Structures are given as C-alpha cells and as structure tokens.
Amino acid sequence: MERFVAAAPLGAGSRRVYRIALTTWAWPLVDKAPPVGEERRGAVPPAVPLALLDAPHTGRRLRDAFVRRADAVGARTANRELSILAAALNWWRGQGWLETDPIAGVNRLPASAARPPGPRLDAQQTRAVLGLPVPLREKALWHLLHESGATIDRVLALDIDDLDLAGRRTRGRAPLHWGDGAAALLPLLTLGRLDGPLFATGRGRLSYRRAAEVFTAATRPLDPRGRGWTLRGLAPAGRG
C-alpha cells in the first residue's frame, strides 16, 4: 500500500485519504467488518498479504463488503473507496505482484442513488437501540429520527434556531413534531447554544457518514449478524 501511495501523483491530503480507504478494504479481506465510529480510532488494521487478493474467495468478500459499505456511508463514499482500490489494484498488477482483478464484478453505484433502506427495526429492537448508553448527541438524534419520522438528511440539516422546544416542533412550513424522548433530550443538547447546527462535531455539522458509522458501531452488539444496523431502520412503520 505504501509503495502505491508513494508512487501516485497525490498531494499530502489525498495520500491520507488513500491510506484510509485502502486500510478500510483490508478488514473484509480477512472476513471482518471495518471498525466504525469511536472503534475506528486507534484500531490496528489486519496484516494482509498482497497475494490474498488473488485468492478465489476474495472477489465475493469484496462485493459483499461494497454493498455493506454503501449501506452504511452512502454511494458517494463507497464509490470513492472502490475507485481508490481499483487504482491500487491496477498499479500492483503493473508491478507483476497480482494476476487477477478481484473487483471485476463490482459495479459503481449512481452517486445520486438513494441509500438502501436496510431492515426496519421492530419495536423491541428500537427500544434496545434507544436504551443504549451513548453520548447525548447520538441519543437525541436517534429519538428525534424515530419520533418525527423525518428523513435523516432533513434532521441533520436542522439548526438550533429552527426549533420550537416548548411546542415540540420545528418552525416554518411542514414542521417536524416529536414526542417525550426527544422533548427531554433536545433542551439538554442545546443548553448554552443559541445558533449553529443542532447536531454538530468539533469541525461543524454532523455528516450522514459519521452519524451512520456511529450508529452501526453502537448497534453491532444488538445485531445477531454482528454487523450493526442502519439509521433508516429507526423510522417508524410506514415512514423513512
């Protein structure tokens, strides 16, 4: 990986992105899910021999991993990571280190494609998710998504001054409404803040990708498959 990145005509920022993407692909090569959310910080990637990319089962693993990745972070991010892997594979084959193309059957998704909805969580699963001991930001976000039935993009786009906390609604046309859970959490989340993104990070507005990764990581212990669930599963029946 380092030889490919060093040989590519990239700036320092792009080299970092390429390393992160290629490291993410290392996990499914050994049939493991990449760590997400807080688990990703400091996680040591598996040591993967390059020859494993020529193994008969590798193509299937990478196809499955691409589907799961697109489900978790959206088509745009998954496509970018697939393109980075394709560039690395081409370079490695050019060096004579590989013979096959394990992603030959993996097709890019339309960048504008809707994210796959994922399985709808039933009432018991939803209660388990909303009861998880997670930071206030995540707990408020999950309650608001479930109680309002709004799309994830719309909720993440909210600013603090969009809220009518006393009325349990947003201001303006087509307001969102929420119930007891979000009503108890949102005042705590906005305490001492008058404006800016409702759901924020140290660098600005919380992104869909980050929110999805955190949710998947947090719900992995609840998922019988051990993969974690998607944020869209929180939408009440008939919504989302």
Low-confidence parts, pLDDT < 50 over ≥5 residues?
A: none
N-to-C order of helices and strands:
HHHHHHHEEHEEH
Please give the order of strands in the largest beta sheet.
1-2
Q: How many angstroms separate the termini?
A: 40 Å
Q: Please tell me the overall pLDDT.
A: 87
Number of helices: 9
Number of strands: 4
CATH superfamily of the largest domain: Intergrase catalytic core
- Strand-residue proportion: under 5%
| C-alpha Rg (nearest Å) | 20 Å
User: What does the main sheet amount to?
Assistant: 2 strands, antiparallel
Which class of the largest domain in CATH terms? Mainly Alpha
GO molecular function: DNA binding
Protein name: Integrase
Layout of secondary structure:
Blueprint: H1 2-7, H2 12-29, H3 58-73, H4 75-94, H5 123-130, H6 136-148, H7 152-156, E1 163-164, E2 169-170, H8 180-189, E3 200-201, E4 204-205, H9 208-219
Helix pairs in contact: 2-4, 3-4, 6-8
GO molecular function, one term: DNA binding
Organism: Actinacidiphila reveromycinica
Protein name: Integrase
Care to describe what's here?
- By secondary structure, this protein is mostly helical.
- The chain folds into 2 domains: 2-94; 123-234, Intergrase catalytic core (hpI Integrase, Chain A).
- Helices cover 45% and strands 3% of the residues.
- The chain is built from 9 helices and 4 strands.
- It has helices spanning 2-7, 12-29, 58-73, 75-94, 123-130, 136-148, 152-156, 180-189, 208-219, and strands at residues 163-164, 169-170, 200-201, 204-205.
- The strands form 2 sheets. Strands 1-2 form a two-stranded antiparallel ribbon. The chain has a two-stranded antiparallel sheet with strand order 3-4.
- The longest helix is centred in the middle third of the chain and has 20 residues, at 75-94.
- It is elongated.
- The relative contact order is 0.13.
- The mean pLDDT is 87.
- It comes from Actinacidiphila reveromycinica.
- GO terms for molecular function: DNA binding.
- This is Integrase.
